[in-house]
Write a structure and sequence with these properties.
single chain; alpha+beta; Dna Ligase, domain 1; 3 domains; 10 strands
């Protein structure tokens, strides 16, 4: 709608819409002798004349008639309907009717949506594709496809159930992993004769631990005996009982001592190259062993 500039005397205002100008005239806020100008006018014109001309233009305009595309392209009776073949066996129906968009039903996840869409619009797509000699030939072809879908539906349902049962049995009947065979137990070593604690030169003797006297161990010992003797000992007690470690580490508050030839491998009966003792909270808690490949 055109906008109007209003001039009264030497003053000009606007632009105002046609509806606003008409309201101003009705309310009396705009004098009837005021002048107006809009696109298409050569000079200022009385506002009443401009309003009358605009009303004539509006009355002469014929609104366009909007029609639905589906109504403009009418489908014959008998074309619309549910395409059960497009829903149940979408890829086969799409190839047979040359509705190639139906092949999207082969895509996992998207296939269900495509099949559902073909259920409601498949017959219309097949008809618009063209090439049918008559409406009766189209209806007979779609009827044959519906019979094929009715036969395939129970077969697909049974196959789906069988696959689901087989998958459930495989998950439920999967054998549990076999537990590793227990390692042969080492024979309990004969108790070693008590040995007096060793004293370092220039250092006071180590006090006995609460668990028993600190004595030098006859090395190498079987792993079980070694762990039984050192478990709960402090790093200082371990050095008295085993000797000076080959290496020391402190990793995030855990003290690690590495001893050489201190234990016997239960499989080879030979000495371990490295016996690793980890002290947590100042006490021996974990033991690891390493042997080089010879």
């Amino acid at each position: 709608m055109a906008n109007l500039l209003i001039r009264h005397g030497t003053r000009a205002a606007g632009p105002y819409t046609f509806e606003e100008t008409e309201r101003f005239l009705a309310e009396g806020t705009l004098p009837a002798d005021a002048l107006a100008w809009t696109e298409g006018l050569i000079d200022w014109t009385p506002v009443g004349t401009v309003i009358a001309q605009l009303k004539e233009r509006i009355a002469a305009i014929t609104p366009p008639e909007f029609t639905d595309l589906a109504r403009r392209v009418e489908l014959p009776d008998g074309v619309r309907g549910l395409s059960w073949a497009g829903f149940v066996i979408a890829p086969f129906w799409a190839v047979g009717n040359r509705v190639w968009i139906g092949l999207l039903a082969l895509i996992p996840g998207l296939g269900q949506l495509v099949s559902l869409w073909l259920l409601f619009h498949g017959r219309e797509l097949a008809w618009r594709r063209g090439g049918w000699p008559s409406l009766n030939a189209f209806r007979q072809a779609q009827r044959r496809w519906s019979i094929a879908a009715a036969i395939a539906a129970p077969l697909i349902a049974v196959l789906t159930v069988l696959v689901a049962i087989e998958a459930q049995q495989q998950r439920g009947g999967r054998p549990a992993p076999e537990a590793p065979a227990p390692a042969p137990r080492e024979a309990a070593p004969e108790p070693a004769p008590p040995v007096q604690p060793l004293k370092r030169r220039g250092a006071p003797a180590t006090e006995p631990a609460a668990g028993g006297a600190v004595a030098r161990l006859p090395l190498p010992l079987p792993r079980a005996a070694f762990e039984a003797a050192l478990r709960g000992r402090t790093p200082a007690e371990a050095e008295v009982m085993v000797g000076t470690p080959a290496a020391r580490h402190n990793e995030q508050g855990v003290v690690v001592h590495v001893f050489q030839n201190a234990t016997l491998n239960p499989e080879t009966r030979g000495p371990d190259d490295a016996t690793i003792v980890m002290f947590a909270d100042g006490r021996a808690a974990m033991f690891r062993y390493a042997q080089q490949t010879r």
